[in-house]
Amino acid sequence: MDISQLIDLFLHLDRHLAAVTRDYGVWVYALMFAIIFVETGLVVMPFLPGDSLLFVAGTIAAVGGLQLWVLIVLLIVAAVLGDAVNYLVGRFFGPKVFGWEQSRFFNRAAFERTHQFYERYGAITIIVARFLPFVRTFAPFVAGIAQMSYPRFALYNVVGGALWVSSLSTLGFLIGNTSWVKANFFLVTLGMIIIPGLPAVFEALRHLWLARRARRTTGA
Q1: Model pTM score
Q2: CB burial of residue 104 (10 Å; 0-12, 13-18, 19+)
Q3: Angle (nearest 5°) at CA 143 between 142 and 145
Q4: Phi and psi dihedrals of 26, rounded to 5?
Q5: Biggest alpha carbon distance in the chain?
Q6: Side-chain half-sphere exposure of 84, counting CA atoms within 13 A
Q7: Cα–Cα distance list, 104 to 83, 159, 163 (Å)
Q8: Hey, which of 50, 82, 146, 166 would disulfide with 37, CB 3.0 to 4.6 Å?
Q9: 3-class SS string, 116-131
């Protein structure tokens, strides 16, 4: 396997998972662990497969290619460790990057608002972000920069990681091998990306509407 094939395998393991499981056996667990850890742990890697990889892994477990309980436990650990690393990177390196008070990129008022937001809404943010591609990569990093208290972050990191891995893997296990899902896998993957994000979109639109109404009222 040359370097281009290896890169393609790493970036698109969800597409090649059945073949990799057949050819490499239990080593596929290590590869999935690495991908989930990197996707959640490195803020520069949000494009790696996450939701689709968990779903496809569940479908392979359903036909005996993988052990579902091993898959779930191992990838929960990978997801939790990934978010923890991402948080610590944001907490310890964010201040150095922005230079805090001495940097023109640092805004004390914005930092305070972000810190207060994560202290107040951080729990739901960390959990919901797990189901939002790209967002789940940045949420723990921003939580670290915002200095969200670590015990609070750690609790909801574990809850969110467990819900994310177990729900998508189990969903794949239950319905991934049905004829409709196989025939419409692209639509299923698209749905896993769009549907979890709808509440966030509606909430953003609601805030925009409330802000516009407030401005109108003030202007009146």
Answers
A1: 0.74
A2: exposed
A3: 60
A4: -65, -15
A5: 70
A6: 14
A7: 28, 37, 39
A8: 82
A9: HHHHHHHHHHHHHHCC
> What ranges do the domains of the chain cover?
3-219
Q: Which residue has the tokens 């490499």?
A: 24
Residues 91, 92, 93, 94: is their CA dihedral positive or negative? Answer: positive
Residues of the chain with pLDDT under 70: 1-16, 95-119, 121-122, 176, 181-211, 214-215, 218-220
Q: Could you give the CA distance from residue 152 to residue 20 in angstroms, rounded to a whole number?
A: 38
pLDDT tens string 29-49: 998 899 999 888 887 777 777
Asked if 87 and 153 touch (Cβ cutoff 8 Å), the reply is yes
Percent of the chain with pLDDT over 70: 61
